[in-house]
């Protein structure tokens, strides 16, 4: 089977970085057409730079990286330096990238790619706020039926929220964008906190990255060492969730995940529950299903996949 063509839309972030590395390490399954950066965990000048840092770390400077939107559709940007550090990739020392940033705007790249590639052959993986994706869908509605699938990290049902009592960060930062995506009619697969909070780093799992004795292994171990301190203190857990790589892992080994095809709506008007993913898990409404909403993960299989693929660098 030919590798699946994907665009990663991202706001790196240490866990975003691991998702990019997983995609770049898996050419038999993943054909990464390009990376579009968006403002989220840190502002756009850092997210586009961080994406290029990760590509160079992987030895893939030919990867196309585009800068997209620098602010949510109608909100003031909220960032997460308190989790990811001032650079977004705090932990190991990182060198400035030398590979070029593409001149084309990320939204234009998304539109052009979906129009030029055969219909139904391009998957979009948003692992940050969905500003770029929503902008593309609004600007070029003809691309919607051409999308193979949107596999995103965002939202929660059982875990509820991680940035407010009701909302997960990626959705909260730009709920209007998320609503456009969820209302678009494109096939959606959602990796919410309900999944990612079951994919925790542990000392043994981080040691496995460090034991690779490579630049990539050392960087991922250092990133996860830094990243996990916040969640361990917040939740009292043994490690931190690696949220974003779940999307790429699903494209490589979908059998690692289980969920339900249900209706998911995005709350945009309430200040109390802004950004909430109202997931009809128990199918108590007659609203039509619009998303495959994942709930469970084989965490051991997930980390085995990460270690095996990162060892390729």
Provide an overview of this structure.
The chain has 313 residues and is of the alpha/beta class. The chain has helices spanning 14-24, 44-57, 81-84, 106-116, 131-139, 169-173, 175-182, 193-196, 203-210, 215-235, 245-252, 299-310; strands at residues 4-10, 30-37, 65-67, 122-126, 147-153, 188-191, 257-262, 264-266, 277-279, 291-297. Strands 3-2-1-4-5-6-10-7 form an 8-stranded mixed sheet, sandwiched between helices. It has a two-stranded antiparallel sheet with strand order 8-9. Strand 2 (30-37), helix 2 (44-57) and strand 3 (65-67) form a beta-alpha-beta unit. It is globular.
In short:
The protein is of the alpha/beta class and 313 residues long.
Describe how the helices and strands are arranged.
Elements lengths: L3 E7 L3 H11 L5 E8 L6 H14 L7 E3 L13 H4 L21 H11 L5 E5 L4 H9 L7 E7 L15 H5 L1 H8 L5 E4 L1 H4 L6 H8 L4 H21 L9 H8 L4 E6 L1 E3 L10 E3 L11 E7 L1 H12 L3
Parallel strand pairs: 1-2, 1-4, 2-3, 4-5, 5-6, 6-10
Antiparallel strand pairs: 7-10, 8-9
Index terms:
alpha/beta; two-stranded antiparallel sheet; 12 helices; globular; 313 residues; 8-stranded mixed beta sheet
